[in-house]
UniProtKB/TrEMBL annotation:
One Gene Ontology term, aspect cellular component: excinuclease repair complex
Residue stretches in coiled coil: 199-238
Biological role: The UvrABC repair system catalyzes the recognition and processing of DNA lesions. UvrC both incises the 5' and 3' sides of the lesion. The N-terminal half is responsible for the 3' incision and the C-terminal half is responsible for the 5' incision.
Any one Gene Ontology BP term: SOS response
Subunit structure: Interacts with UvrB in an incision complex.
Principal localisation: cytoplasm
Protein known as: UvrABC system protein C
Subcellular compartments: Cytoplasm
HAMAP family: UvrC
NCBIfam families: PRK00558.1-5, uvrC
Natural source organism: Halobacillus litoralis
Length: 599
């Protein structure tokens, strides 16, 4: 904890508000709210935390806070700040889910359309529907019953829909505003539960048509009735009333939360939304924030009622959402909330079970690989691959796997400096030398296993540098490919010989993933450089050397090698400040230059 944070913690107010955590670049990485700012913000810097919270705290170098007059204001402000800054640790609702809705547009001659984009316009929205097929079937039914216009752009003459009695033909005939309003009202009534009355009216008209021996019309009406029943009645669960509700339940454990939302429309449960995410605050406040952002960020239309579990601050939610929020204490509504809670708990347990299963399988693969090689379990594996195209612009890359999982922050990429032409063995020597000289110099952890992409030649070159130049004793293996550039065999020992791995085993899949990953990383780095036209000068990575200064140095010294061999006075004579000249010489003459992977 730095001095700035300590000083700010000491003067935090005992009031509600929002806080903004910032990293070394002054970027907002997390936004939260609290009933009591003093207690909440201090909690991040005291006591024990799980791994993900520790990662957040390690990045915090400063914070700001905004005091509000109420918890409702804090919730609204939090939602707006998250929308503005999109902090990387506020991962809720990053992957927006959208459901189809039916919309009656607000045009002079309105249309009925299916849309996933709910806007705050004058249109009427109905839904959400379980899927686009259900929405389209309902639209198809309504198109048969109510003749709104179908075309996006008004044509010059009537089309087939007019002759099918599914459009009034406003392109050619005058249709009054009152007529359009009546049709819209009928559609609204139908979608709000009035389909039962319409079905009753259709049955009456069907019987009248039969009595008049108009069997064709009677059959048409019968088909409409059956269509209504098939579209509107096939639902999962029902409630006695026709109220549109969203029913929320949540569960949390091990720093993760799952929220389930049941959509009840016209008294029927038609769909659910499931979201799992890590959280860093009080569970109840996180849940409340989720609901607020669910409507604000995803533009879900407000239902007539939102049902939530016990221990939810209803007043705060109602103030922020401007809709009725209710905690049911008995009956069918309470049962549905409990069902949402139960489903959330099951989803969370399933996630942990899958994680544990995957981790167990991966750890066993790492242990099995160690057994095949007769070494200790290689918890840390570092793998290398070289890349060049027809000998041009040679580069190399290193990836790191810890307990069988890639650690992308530890990936490294190398521009080959000392090797001329396509020499894979010497390239491997250079990269191994640069990597492990730096590891020894900076006291970095040595790997439990080194993997080189290639056969006996690459292995021999790498082992020679490790053993005879650096005195490093780390097991090293090679991965050979077949003619289709797929992992063929694992080589190990002195002299190298194939290790018998079952191609269906988890350990074979592990070495295959490692080889694929290091190859992908090397190729992507090589393409990145070739896309710029050529490998950049070492000068491009020196602080204080911009484009103009680089051109000046190269124009005078002709090459990076000449700059490297120059005296500091030779550089300062060109107008380069002495501290920058000194930095240039130190950088160019250091033995090991690595570039971290871009994330």
């Amino acid at each position: 904890m730095n001095s700035t944070i300590k000083e700010k913690l000491a003067v935090l107010p005992d009031q509600p508000g929002c806080y903004l955590m910032k990293d070394k670049n002054d970027t907002v990485i997390y936004v939260g709210k609290s009933k009591v700012l003093k207690n909440r913000v201090r909690s991040y810097f005291t006591g024990a935390h799980d791994g993900k919270t520790q990662r957040l705290v390690r990045e915090i170098v400063n914070f700001e806070y905004i005091v509000t007059t109420s918890e409702i204001e804090a919730l609204i402000l939090e939602m707006n700040l998250i929308k503005k800054y999109d902090p990387k640790y506020n991962v809720l609702l990053k992957d927006d889910k959208t459901y189809p809705y039916l919309k009656v547009t607000s045009e002079r001659h309105p249309r009925l359309i299916v849309t996933r984009n709910v806007k705050k316009d004058k249109g009427k929205y109905f839904g959400p529907y379980p899927n686009v097929i259900a929405a389209r079937e309902t639209k198809k039914l309504l198109d048969r019953l109510y003749p709104l216009r179908k075309c996006n752009t008004m044509p010059d003459r009537v089309c087939l829909y007019y002759h099918m009695h599914q459009c009034l033909g406003p392109c050619e005939y005058k249709v009054s505003k009152k007529t359009n309003e009546e049709i819209v009202q009928n559609i609204t009534s139908f979608l709000n539960g009035g389909h039962t009355a319409i079905k009753k009216d259709l049955k009456k008209r069907m019987l009248e048509a039969s009595e008049e021996l108009d069997f064709e019309r009677a059959k048409e009406l019968r088909d409409q009735i059956e269509h209504i029943e098939s579209v509107m009645e096939q639902q999962k669960m029902t409630m006695n009333d026709q109220v549109d509700r969203d029913i929320f339940g949540y569960s949390y454990d091990k720093g993760w939360m799952c929220v389930q939302v049941f959509f009840v429309r016209q008294g029927k449960l038609i769909e659910r939304d499931v979201t799992l995410f890590p959280f860093f605050d009080d569970p109840e406040e996180t849940f409340i924030s989720y609901i607020g952002r669910f409507y604000l960020h995803q533009n879900h239309p407000y239902p007539k009622q939102v049902l939530v579990p016990v221990a939810t601050d209803v007043d705060v939610l109602e103030g922020a959402l401007d809709t009725k929020v209710h905690i049911p204490m008995r009956g069918r509504k309470k049962e549905l909330v409990e069902l949402a809670m139960k489903n959330a708990k099951i989803s969370l347990e399933e996630k942990f079970a899958l994680i544990e299963r995957d981790e167990e399988r991966t750890i066993k693969a790492v242990e099995a690989l160690g057994n095949h090689l007769h070494i200790e379990t290689p918890h840390r594996i570092e793998a290398f691959d070289n890349s060049n195209i027809q000998g041009a612009d040679p580069v190399s890359a290193m990836v790191v796997f810890i307990d069988g999982k890639p650690q992308k922050k530890e990936y490294r990429k190398y521009k080959i400096r000392d090797v001329e032409g396509p020499d894979d063995y010497e390239t491997m020597r250079e990269v191994i030398r640069r990597r492990y000289k730096r590891v020894l110099k900076e006291g970095l952890p040595l790997p439990d296993l080194i993997v080189v992409d290639g056969g006996k030649g690459q292995m021999t070159a790498a082992l020679d540098v490790l053993e005879n130049e650096l005195g490093v004793d780390v097991p090293l293996c090679g991965l050979a490919k077949d003619d289709k550039h797929k992992t063929s065999e694992l080589l190990y020992g002195d002299p190298p010989s194939p290790i018998d791995l079952d191609r269906q085993s988890q350990e074979f899949y592990l070495v295959q993933r490692i080889q694929d990953e290091v190859h992908r990383f090397a190729i992507s780095f090589h393409r990145q450089l070739r896309g710029k036209g050529a490998i950049q000068s070492e000068l491009d990575r020196i602080p204080g050397v911009g484009q103009k200064r680089r051109r000046l140095l190269l124009r005078h010294f002709k090459s990076v090698t000449e700059i490297k061999n120059a005296e500091i006075e030779d550089i300062t004579r060109l107008g380069v400040p002495e501290p920058v000249a000194n930095t240039i010489l130190i950088h160019l003459n250091q033995d090991n230059v690595e570039e971290p992977a871009e994330e």
